[in-house]
Amino acid sequence: MIRFDNVSVTYSGASSPVLSGVDLVIGEGEMCLVVGPSGSGKSTLLRAVNGLVPRFSGGRLDGRVTVNGRSTADEPPRQFADLIGYVGQDPAAGFVTDTVEDELAYVMENLGTDPQVMRRRVEDVLDLLSLHDVRRRALTTLSGGQQQRVAIGSVLTASPRVLVLDEPTSALDPAAAEDVLAALARLVHDIGVTVLVAEHRLERVVQFADRVVVVPGDGRQVRSGAPADVLRDAPVAPPVVELGRLEGWDPLPLSVRDARRMAGPLRERLQLLTAPGILTEPTPAVGAVGAVGAVGAVARGTAVAEVSGLVAGYGSHAVLDGLDLVVYAGEVTAVMGRNGAGKSTLLAQLAGLRAPLRGSIRVQGDDPHRLDGREARCRVGFVPQDPSLLLYHQTVAAECAAADVEAAAAQGDTARLLTRLVGPVDPHLHPRDLSEGQRLALALAVVLVAGPGLVLLDEPTRGLDYGAKESLGAVLAGLAAEGRAVVLATHDVEVVASVADRAVVLADGEVVADGPARDVVTHSPVFAPQVAKVLAPQAWLTVDEVAGALVDAEVAR
Amino acid sequence: MHPLAWWLWAVGMAAAAMRTTNPLVLGLLIVVVGWVVAARRTDAPWGRSFSLALRLGAFIVVLRVVLAALFGLRIPGTVLFTLPAAELPEWAAGVNIGGAVTVQMLLGAAAEGLRLAAIVAAFGAANSLANPYRLLRTMPSVLYEIGVALTVALAIVPQTVLTAGRVREARRLRGRAVRGLRGLRGLAMPVLEGALERSVDLAASMDARGYGRRRQATGAAVVVSTVALMVGIVGVGVGVYAVLDVGAPDVAGLPVLSVGVALLAVGMVVSGRRVDRSRYRPDPWRMAEFAVVALGMVSAVSVAVVGSVDPDALTMPLYPLGWPAVPPLAVVGITASVLAGIVTPLPVMTYSGLDHAAAPASREASVGSATTAVRAPAAHGPGPAVHPAPAPAAHPTAATIPATPGVTAAGQVPA
Q1: Does the pLDDT at position B152 exceed 80?
Q2: Which ipTM was obtained for this model?
């Protein structure tokens, strides 16, 4: 169905090709997962399928890409609209009309589809993606998961035979991601659509895939194969696979179910070891609504921020409704909850960006909204969801210099901080040309140079690969060890498992669970990380923990 | 409602306003227009734009009065106060700065300002009543390219406003005031970069979804459409000139103009045929649309009739000063437009539920049912309260997924 013949892509101004010598054949009806570190060329590969690369990106494509026998060299992307549906990373950026129905019909209007057929297909897609309840709603009022499903639907109405999706679940909470993936699995199984999907969070998708394409980056060869074979030594792998690698399981498990069936002996061995969080005795039922701060087991530093009775939101609608929370120094707190639960609102309030409707917020004793900008900066550092919003200079060096001046820090402080966070970064690069991880680190350095006692991060792991997440985790742990309070809002349960000391779950504008991260995530079917699911009832969270314990046991013997 | 109907109605109302400076008639017109907006606007962002139009109108009135007092023509009448006048040299005769300010000056300026305000209100009403996206869809397919530029603008403008807000917030995070030229630069760079990036994304998305697909044109069709369009434009230009110029020979007037128009039409049809588009649920043109357009015309015609029968009734009487007249025909004609807010169907509210409260019923239902199921044991069981999980059974799509081991396995985790 899709065929890459010796394809190389070089962007203009780049010294080396992003992709080189790619040979790939994807058959009809396959669900194909594209994996690789960020910046390795996954998006380039996907966008080359319908010719958006190089026609919309510039650069040069050598070799030949053919879909269903038609070459992208001969025709522009629009001529492939009936054959290939492409959904980009940010669904909202691609919306052309204002309501769900119009958006679904847009592609058919362009194809000149008969009005009768259009009506029928719109209804079909509304049903297929469970969108009928919102069919007349404006696109901007939908939740992230709904927007993502509309974006998929807006290409499905053309009944394409190939569907190309770039990180369809990266912005979604676990439940919404489940919805989208369920819809995709349905398309593959019921309609036989060929699906090509790129995803960082493999743990969500790999179990649905028939084939995995690894884009390793650094000019190494793209290869593909059955998921269990390819993931054996792929540079990125979900936690179940890493557990399988650690234990040498064969075939390699791809889903929690497979791994659980193989993990019996491992569980027995681990039973004898002291797991970091084996629940020998029932911990008191902490974190029930209102029982904030009742988590006795965790040693607490001083309270850095105190939120009480916070009501906040937009206009008259309260996203947060009477929220109480205390944030302690020396602790990484993860704020979780579904899309629209108020995580970002809480962070914006803590950062003093907006005044609360009711209730009070105190950061080191003062209302952050009333502090002037400079003073607020020294107390609270906030890295927004899109870190590039914080950056507005032409080079990394200029950005660092400006941050030094703003924070009244010694010259070069920001640059040194940046090096400490991610290693050396070319100071002459434009911030937009950095990798996701480097850009996040730059924004974090800019924020940290003022020495805030409270550091807030909104969805910091979006778009980060496993390696970048790991180094972010180390950075955050380091910040907490320095005595700062770190709060991150995130959907990524694996990150919470490996980084957070404490987890707070928001729903309906209130705190519904608050406690040690280990307890909160292992007791929630939605938020439990894969390792916890495999090894339940033992409360292991990460592969590293398991490996560490096994090594220690070996040494002890 | 067809968006074009609201715009035609607004043109009628504006035409009525244009012919009068009678403040009573103008005031009535603004009130009627405002009432229709209040009755039939949607909850979309553009639905809220009417108050902006009113504010702009008020600003226009004030500005005209102030300018009249400072620089207006010194017309005689009841002097209110005298501003210090600047003596201007001879060559600047006709320009006034300061001097005696009369009631007549100010009232005349206010009435004229009110006329402009009424026109602004009429178009502001159309702007907030008609969905701009649907208005774009009514464009003939040959003008599709222009339509696309407008589509991108429509999508980008609100997003850019959002980005500007976020960048301002981010600026505060860096502890910098957003003031002055330097502040502006820091604000403009990320906003413009973001807008540019999004425009490219949007263009790519439109292209990938088949925007601008054309059928392969035969050489003959291309030649015909190009020649027809070119000659047509020249013909229309010459024709218009000849019609307006008294000295031009008669044969160069109407005949050339009509040939030009005909050629243009041919060119548009031929090139339009190459664009193979269809429309999803086009807005129908029904009785309500006819009625609304007719009401706008009734307003315009009633005022025009009054103007030809009794022109004084449509002006603000200044010499002698007096109450403006109340021309019954114009009052009835304009008031009739109240019907536009009654006979038209209620608009569909597409933006309600901005608060995510109206998230898909399926998800809400599953959470609702799971809340009772999960929270109850958590209350007395060990461990912290659990975030309500979508129970597999309540999950509408879960049943058809071949493998959701994550959910299944987790469901077995003993709490």
Answers
A1: no
A2: 0.82
A360 and chain B in contact, CB less than 8 A: no
Is the N-terminal amide bond of A251 cis, ω within 30° of 0? yes
Is the domain spanning A2-236 CATH 3.40.190.120? The answer is no
pLDDT, tens digit, 9 for 90 and up, residues B200-210: 888 889 889 98
Q: What are the residue boundaries of the structural domains of chain A, listed by start?
A: 2-236, 238-272+530-557, 303-526
Q: Which residues of B touch A243 (CB under 8 A)?
A: none
Question: If chain A, 557 residues long, is cut into consecutive pieces of 10 residues, what is the mean pLDDT of each piece?
Answer: 93 86 92 87 91 89 93 91 91 88 93 93 91 88 84 93 90 80 85 89 85 86 90 85 90 90 89 58 36 39 89 77 90 88 88 87 88 84 86 87 86 89 86 84 91 91 83 90 92 88 90 89 84 86 87 82
Q: What token pair was written down for A111?
A: 């194809």
- Probe site for chain B from A512, A521, A522, A534 (most B CB atoms < 10 A): A512
Q: What is the spatial distance between Cα A190 and Cα A365, in angstroms, rounded to a whole number?
A: 59
Per-residue CA distances from A244 to A210, A281, A467, B314 (Å): 19, 30, 19, 88
- Rounded Cα distance, A379 and A484, in Å: 10
> Which of chain A's residues have a Cβ under 8 Å away from the Cβ of B207?
52, 55-56, 76-78
The H or E element that residue A306 is part of is: strand A303-314
CB contact under 8 A, A392 and B190: yes
Q: Report domain extents, chain B.
A: 3-137+283-341, 147-208, 219-273, 362-404
Provide the token pair at A192. Answer: 């036989």
Q: Is B399 on the interface with A (CB under 8 A)?
A: no
- A414 and A446 in contact (C-beta within 8 Å)? yes
The whole-model pTM stands at 0.77
- Tell me the CATH number for domain A303-526: 3.40.50.300
Closest residue on chain A to B354 (Cα): A141
The answer, yes or no, to whether residue B144 has pLDDT greater than 70, is no
How far apart CA B409 and CA A257 sit, in angstroms, is 6
- Going by the DSSP 8-state scheme, the letter that residue A99 receives in this structure is B
Q: Which residue has the tokens 């013949």?
A: A5
- Contact residues on chain B for A182, CB-CB shorter than 8 A: 395, 397-398, 400-401, 404
SS3 label, residue B85: coil
